[in-house]
Amino acid sequence: MWKDLPFKLAFSSSSSSSSFLIFSIWVLLFTTMGLAQNNATIPVKIGVVVDLETEFGMMSLSCINMALSDFYSSHSNYKTRLVLTSRDSNGDVVGAASAGLDLIKNGQVQAILGPETSMEANFLIKLGDKSQVPIVTFSASSASLTSFHTQYFVRATQNDSSQVLAISALVQAYQWQEAVLVYVDDEYGQGIIQFLTDALQAVNTRVSYRSVISSRASSDEIEAELYMLMTKQTRVFIVHMSPSLGSRVFTTAKRIGMMREGFVWIMTDSMTNLLSSLNNSVVDSMQGLLGVRPYVPITKELEEFQARWKRKFQQDNPTVVGVELNVFGLRAYDAVVALAMAAENAVNSTNSLIFQNPKNGSANSTTDLDSIGISQNGPSFLQALLKTTFKGLSGEFRLIDRQLQSSTFQIVNINGNGARGVGYWTPDNGLERNLNDSSGNSTIHSTSNSTILGTIIWPGDLRSTPKGWEIPTNEPKMRIAVPVKQGFTQFVKVTTDSSNTITITGYCIDVFDAVIKSLPYAVPYELIPYSGPNGEQPNYDEMIYQVFLGRFDGVVGDTTIRANRSNYVDFTLPYTESGVSMIVPFKENKSNNAWVFLKPLTWDLWATSGCFFVFIGFVVWVLEHRINEDFRGPPAYQAGTSFWFSFSTMVFAHRERVVSNLARFVVIIWCFVVLILTQSYTASLTSLLTVQQLQPTVNDVHELIKNQENIGYQMGTFVYELLIGLGFDKSKLVVYQSAEECHDLFEKGTAKGGIAAAFDEVPYLRIFLAKYCSKYTMVDPTFKTAGFGFVFPRNSPLVPDVSRAILEVTEGDKMKDIEKTWFGNESTCPNSSTSVSSSSLGLDSFWGLFLIAGVASTLALLIFAAMFVYEQRNLLKTSDSESSKWRKIWDLARIFNQKDLTSHTFKKSKLYEESGIHGDDQSPVGTSPSTHCYPSPSSYDHSFTFFGEQGTPSPEHGDPNNPNVQVTEEIDVIIELANHTREQQRIPEDNP
Questions:
Q1: Parallel, antiparallel or unpaired: strands 478-483 and 525-530
Q2: pLDDT per position as a tens digit, 783-819
């Protein structure tokens, strides 16, 4: 009937004036029918489990209802509608479990939103897995709830473990070495502890104690636990508990004095998120605390929602005042939006919203758990929910591993009536004062807290950073063990007077006292002498082990930092030089070695130098033989002249002329080499003769082992184990306690039961050498050690502070005064620690010079040979079949042996031009007419020899003013020309 009405009205109208009215009625009817069809939506039942009697439950339920209203007002086209069914958990685990069971069994809900706490959620998670109903929580954050076996548990909030990195970064930034964890004794409190412990250990912070407080603890029990914490050194407390229990803990801590200067309190987000729900008296007791909480960006939508929520909540709950919106309310709002979007994507028809009854049927069920059905839409609903992403009021909503992704945390400082933000922590940048800080100061590994966070007001209105520990006032002074020494009392000296008053002095004691005084806080201590069983010098390893056992709080003395000792105790930075070395007596060398002049150079350098002297002499002879009379004459004379010339360059006494440019080049290079070589030899010989007077008896440890010598070591030190490790026989190790006793053992020697060498740490050897500097010396090798350091128990908070104080003392004038007081006489002894080693010079120091000289000489020879062969190229071109290559070489050698008459050094005279002497003239030439001139070498037989002509050159050769010499030169030239002509006639006529 209603369907035909618009058409009847349209066609029954006959007048044009009424046609518009009829059309309007038709449109209105169809719009009404369309709305009626759109109202046919699919209801999706959602259960809500909260504590309706608490402010938190009322705030959460208010946000849930507003989320439904806001979402569907902006998404009216959705074909699904969430229908909420709420149940009161009564703040009890059993009540929450009963409410969840009722919602699944009787209400057949598709998902359950809630519950509030982690304890309540534990049972509901198992119900959800059994019935395939997603359990979506917006406030249960315990890390223990996360498991791969709980497939239908969705955490629409952050895991507690996501904040541990922010807390550890905060502890690291202020360099606190220890922390105490204070948490509630339930599943919620224990869930975060392992993650927090691991995060603190990653930044080298030790959890010194775990304080577990029951949620039902009385005021007296809380007070007793806090008093116990006051007796410990650690003053950094990290608190993880519910606001109800935390309020009682902080109120008690304020009352007993644990909120004064020096204390550090850090809260997890369990309390920081709910600060607005605490009354003013509780907040007043929390002044100076630090807290971390998830950062919620302030947007326009969030500000508008806060205003609307406040009006709505006051209208619905007029009798409830003081309730503030927190991050859990925002996450409840976002969780409802996520459920609505998932329902739209997962639900296709009403047929998919049914529950399948269990196989056993309700008739055989003995409990309600046996009769609950299985949601047919559960798997698809869960998958749609896990894929849902959007920008919510609390930030970006995105589920990773079925829980909200980690985001930025804000660091707040409790001051006045609320929390004041001092910085942020992000997974990418760590701690930073402002988000998106581009100054470069943001780093998770930074230790400069002044540039990371804003100004923090600590408990007690303290502006400076607390050190994080202190010595409890109700404990006695620190018991510091001091070794009782028989010798080397400059380091530690324990004396007892007639009244049994013990006095402890020494270098180590003065350094420790100066270090403790430089600390910014007082450290009371008492020194307790520690000796061996019979009063002798103690074993240092055993003394240090007493600290590990807790019988002493530290050790002060000449205690060396060793790796095996660091397994039981902690050492400060060293305050002395390090190393273990050897001392031996000087040799009594009354006579000098006759062959000491050979020691400055090694044998290979001597051999190389000699070879080069011969080689350079040969090179100069080759280059000068044809053009220089000084390098001509009988073979023996030429060889002697060449060697004499080469070796005389060593003292620059060579008098022979060098006329060839190539020879001059070689001589210049060689003189430079000889200069450096002779100067180095002189310096090495001088040093060798000086050092020889301080020659030690032993230079090598292996020599001591080989000769079975006795070795000395100081009683109680680790040097004994070092010597055994080096291979010394135990029967050859002799112990001493003082420098005087060590000297007596040296005087006896190995043959009389004494020692040949002593091993000890460098500080002791300095004392010994200061007293006996003229008799002993320290030689290599030096075995590395870390030096002397102060001993404290493992993970003692004193270690970093004392180490920094040691640096301040050692770098200042105070350390110089202490050293002068106890080691002042050491400056009067010359330094005997100079390592004695071989002073011989080796070839490796001069091979570069020899290389230059060799290359230069070889190059000169090659140039000369090339020029000579080029001049005699006509001889080499002969093609006589009877002449062989050896004949040509022989001819070249014969020509090389002759003078080069074309050289400017041999001048032609008029006598040669006018004589007309032919080459076949065999008449000998007599002696020079001058009675003052020796016979010319040309007056002898000129048969060919490789080394040159027989005879001796004139001693007056080279004097242009001597007429006798000029005549002799002219005669020599004539004879040479005659010889040349004679040799040419000997060549067969058929040769070209």
A1: parallel
A2: 888 889 999 998 888 898 899 999 999 888 888 899 8
- Please identify which residue in the block is written with the tokens 């709420």: 86
Helix (H) or strand (E) holding 661: helix 661-691
State yes or no: pLDDT of 713 exceeds 80: yes
At 676 the three-state DSSP class reads helix
Token pair 């987000």 in the structure block, residue: 269
Average predicted confidence (pLDDT) for the chain: 80
CB 626 within 8 A of CB 662: no
Query: For residues 630 and 937, what is the distance between their CA atoms, to the nearest angstrom?
Result: 12
Residue for token pair 């402010």: 55
Q: Structure tokens of 263? A: 């204390």
Average the pLDDT over each of 63-67, 392-396, 809-813, 899-903 and give the range with the smallest value.
899-903
- Neighbouring-strand partners of residue 409: 294, 425
Query: Coil, strand or helix: which one is 388?
Result: coil
pTM, 2 dp: 0.61
Q: Beta 580-585 vs 776-783: how paired, if at all?
A: antiparallel
Q: How confident is the model at residue 46 (pLDDT cuts 50, 70, 90)?
A: very high
DSSP 925-945: P---SSTTSPPPGGGS-----
At residue 750, φ and ψ (nearest 5 deg) are -65, -35
Residue 935: pLDDT over 80 = no
The amino acid sitting at 9 is L
Q: Which two tokens stand for residue 710?
A: 């006795």
pLDDT digits (tens, 9 = 90+) for 353-407: 777 776 555 555 556 666 688 898 899 999 999 999 999 999 999 999 899 987 8
H or E element: which one contains 686? helix 661-691
Q: How far apart are CA 238 and CA 264, in angstroms?
A: 8
Tokens representing residue 412 in the block:
């707040």
Q: Could you count the other beta carbons within 10 Å of the beta carbon of residue 826?
A: 17
DSSP symbols for 147-206: -TT-TTEEESS--GGGGHHHHHHHHHHTT--EEEEEEESSHHHHHHHHHHHHHHHHTT-E
Rg of the chain taking only CA atoms, in angstroms: 53
Ramachandran area for residue 794 (φ above 0: left; ψ -120 to 50: alpha; else beta)? beta
Alpha-helical (H) ranges within 75-117 are 93-105
pLDDT of residue 861: 87
205, 164 Cβ separation under 8 angstroms: no
Residue type at 126 in one-letter notation: K
> Above 90 in pLDDT, residue 895?
no
- Report the distance separating Cα 968 and Cα 598, nearest Å: 47
Fill in the DSSP letter of residue 972.
H
Model pLDDT, residue 970: 47
Q: Is 33 helix (H, G, I), strand (E, B) or coil?
A: helix
Distance CA 46, CA 925 (A): 143
DSSP annotation of 794 reads T
Q: Interhelix angle for 55-74 vs 327-346, to 10°? A: 40
The C-alpha atoms of residue 177 and residue 800 are separated, in whole angstroms, by: 9
Q: Where are the alpha helices (DSSP H) in 693-793?
A: 701-706, 719-726, 739-748, 762-771
DSSP string, 842-855: -GGGTHHHHHHHHH
Q: Yes or no: say if 153 and 402 are a contact pair by the CB < 8 Å rule.
A: yes
209 neighbors 234 (Cβ within 8 angstroms): yes
Please give the angle made by the CA atoms of 485, 798 and 530, to the nearest 5 degrees: 20
- Which burial class, exposed, middle or buried, applies to 941 when counting CB atoms under 10 A from its CB (0-12, 13-18, 19+)? exposed
pLDDT computed for residue 906 by the predictor: 64
The dihedral built from the CA positions of residue 457, 460, 463 and 469, taken in this order, carries a sign that is negative
Q: Say if CB 150 and CB 130 are below 8 A apart.
A: no
Q: At residue 778, does pLDDT exceed 80? A: yes
List pLDDT tens digits, range 329-346. 999 999 999 999 999 998
553-557, 570-574, 576-580, 919-923: lowest mean pLDDT where? Answer: 919-923
